[in-house]
Amino acid sequence: MSTEKSNAIASSLRPVLARLNRKLRKLSPSNTVLSQTERSILVLLEQHDYLLSAELAVLEKITPQSMGALLNHLAELNLISKTVSESDKRKIHIALSATGKEMLEQVRHERDEWLSKAIAEVCTEQEQLILKEAIGPLTKLVNL
């Protein structure tokens, strides 16, 4: 495929994906009290048993002070737990709490439900097949 064609696809695809992502975020009432960074922190914690505050700050590319404020907010909402490290009492392990796990599951369910309904209502069977076939190439882009 020529560079010109891939540029045209990119120019058309980018705003559509951005709008879809924004719409999915807005349509999730369980997730409205959290910033994008806070949501990202919860997902990172879901992927690991625990992380340190400094590790989360590096992964999110924010200052340790900003991370501390975000973690305090997440702790106030009971979405994370903080545990003192057994090997080094100066370190605090941050983990996703049961409430945090439930919230992530609820948010995903709300988003999946809306998207499933929208696809069924708006897309023809042929368009649904095209969307299904597009998942592979889109996944490759995300994993780049």
From TrEMBL:
Q: Where is the HTH marR-type domain?
A: 6-140
Q: Which Pfam families match?
A: MarR
This chain belongs to the protein called MarR family transcriptional regulator
